[in-house]
Amino acid sequence: MANLELMTAGDVRLMQGLAQRVTALRPELVNSDAAYGELAWNWGKGHAADGASWPRRLWFADGELVAWGWAHLPRQVRRNDGSVRDITGAYLAYQVHPGHAELVDEVIDWYDRTAAGLERTVLPSAADEFALTRWTAHGYQPDTAALGDTGDWTQLNERDLTEIETPVLPPGFRFRTAEETGQEAAVQAHVDAWAPTTYTAESYQGVLRTPPYRGDLHVLVEAPDGTMAASTIMWLDEVNRTAEFEPVGTHPGYRRLGLARAMLLHGMHLARAAGANHMTVACLGAPGHPRARGLFYGVGFRELSRDAPLIKG
């Protein structure tokens, strides 16, 4: 690690710029974890705890970022229930501008050097035929475990914001924003929905400092007893007039009440008022994980693209 450059907040902003340019040209080629909002969320919530295991490499052409690789190397993950998980393999998030597709070979070579001797995984877009050919040429194969009926590959879903249903909450529930509730409530809402989790108040401080976080686009649902029963953050890409939900979660004691559906509809109204005309959200795509996909399809989303998980031992 001594000779590797680690991810910085400035790198994230450059990567978000590339995400915006690829979104404008070929949105189906935006890789998993390389979307505008995903970059903000993943960096913000994790850099304090995991940043020391995050080397990166950037490629420029005429002063503009055209490719990047962000490796996630072995580390210990500590969750709020006291459990500790050892991550022994490597994962790569990356993006290459379609006008510089040949750089994928350099990205692969850098990843193989950086994670030499480790099991390596990567999630290119299934629509990127050129990249898939090059990964195969470097010895990467389909990850059969990830691609199984209960695997963890993801799909990106989209819809326009021309017509949005009116959200309906159960009696006594109300919509709030993180601007209104404050930081403690916003953190607790996420922890309750995703327990056990690594998310902490320190994680949220990172999210707060990450462009383009906006407290007025961080939506919560408050229960009659004051519990924050559901929450989501929307990441607005003003250049492309699109917004992304990431994450979306509901407290286990308040599920099956229609809260997430109402929150998504309310969020889309807020996103449209903020200038968006398009919305995206990612979810697990395998047949064995139908719940989130059914939720998003139920409010008008449809698949835009999906991962093609690859692995090299």
Describe this structure in words.
The longest helix is centred in the N-terminal third of the chain and has 17 residues, at 9-25. With 313 residues, the chain is α+β, with helices and mostly antiparallel strands. It has ten helices and 15 strands. The strands form three sheets. Strands 9-10-11-12-13-8-14 form a seven-stranded mixed β-sheet. Strands 1-2-5-6-15-7 form a six-stranded mixed β-sheet, sandwiched between helices. A two-stranded antiparallel sheet has the order 3-4. A hairpin with a 4-residue loop joins strand 11 (228-237) and strand 12. The radius of gyration is 19 Å and the shape is globular.
Overall pLDDT, averaged? 97
Distance between the termini: 21 Å
Low confidence ranges? none
In oligomeric terms, what are we looking at?
single chain
What are the key terms here?
alpha+beta, seven-stranded mixed beta sheet, six-stranded mixed beta sheet
Task: Give a nutshell description of this structure.
The chain has 313 residues and is an alpha+beta fold. The protein has ten helices and 15 strands. The two termini are 21 Å apart.
Give the topology, please.
Layout: H1 9-25, H2 36-50, E1 56-61, E2 64-72, E3 75-78, E4 84-87, E5 90-96, H3 104-114, E6 120-122, H4 129-137, E7 141-142, H5 144-147, E8 154-160, E9 174-177, H6 178-181, H7 183-194, H8 201-208, E10 218-222, E11 228-237, E12 242-250, H9 259-273, E13 278-284, H10 290-298, E14 302-306, E15 310-312
Parallel strand pairs: 5-6, 12-13
Antiparallel strand pairs: 1-2, 2-5, 3-4, 6-15, 7-15, 8-13, 8-14, 9-10, 10-11, 11-12
